[in-house]
Hints:
The structure is a single chain. With 211 residues, the chain is mainly beta. It has two domains: 26-119, Cupredoxins -  blue copper proteins (Immunoglobulin-like), CATH 2.60.40.420; 123-207, Cupredoxins -  blue copper proteins (Immunoglobulin-like), CATH 2.60.40. The protein has one helix at 2-22; strands at 30-31, 34-41, 44-46, 49-53, 58-64, 73-76, 81-84, 91-95, 101-106, 113-119, 123-129, 132-134, 137-141, 146-152, 161-164, 169-172, 178-183, 189-194, 201-207. The strands form six sheets. A four-stranded mixed sheet has the order 1-4-10-9, with no helix packed on it. Strands 3-2-5-8 form a four-stranded mixed sheet, with no helix packed on it.
Amino acid sequence: MIVILDIIIIVIIAFIIWWFWLYKPKATKIVESGEVIVTIEKGIYKPDRIAAYAGMPLSIRFVLNDDAHCAKKVIFADFDRSVELTKSEPQVIELTPDRIGEFAFACPMNMYRGVLEVKAAPAITITVDNAVYQPNRIEASAGKTINLSFVRRDPSRCAQMVYFPDFEIAEELPLNQPKSISIVPQQAGEYKFNCEMGMYSGTLIVNPASR
């Protein structure tokens, strides 16, 4: 009897160690923007891992199907945000992650746990060569980060700089090396970018923010 009791205790301890320190949630698909639905039932979040892009608004809709008292609140401590949940209707928490990394969300007692994985948004590559930006028309959405990667192939002096006058951006472009530029346009419209002499020119088309 004592041996059986010892085995049960060991199993319980092993489960606690696995659940609180070793268990890692599986990733779901990346949410570029918009909404993801998280269901709470049977002691877990489904999905319990959300992957999103930095600088892009994210709406997380929690659907509570669990009667446990601890499940009635979700805390995103790293973003100083929380939401009270009810079974009567889903509750939404809106975030715009501003940094890259993994950020936990959990119930107050840390029994229900999940991870928000924030990744850098993929960059649009723009080649600078033969007096042309390729592509020379780029679309973005107001309020969302757009990451650009300029690759200069043209050794001429004119191609050495790129200017986004409306955003007060002026960046030097090294030859045959990518140069990253991130922009968060706030207003819809068309914005020009160009080289120092205007031989290279392009347009950033900013569409109204999606609702």
